[in-house]
Amino acid sequence: MRDEQFKQQHPVMNEVAQTYVDLYTYRPDEKTRQQLIKREALLHDKLEQILAERAP
Length: 56
Known about the structure:
- The protein is mainly alpha-helical.
- Helices cover 91% and strands 0% of the residues.
- The protein has helices spanning 2-9, 11-25, 27-54.
């Protein structure tokens, strides 16, 4: 009940608090996500090179 009252009375503070909790809870996942983003960029570059070479 207190959580619901807090959410209604202080929506911005509730979101800030939730963001901090999420950052600490999912931090290892964030590292993995960053690595995947880097690999995606590398794959995209390689795909563009392959497509450029195949173009007549």
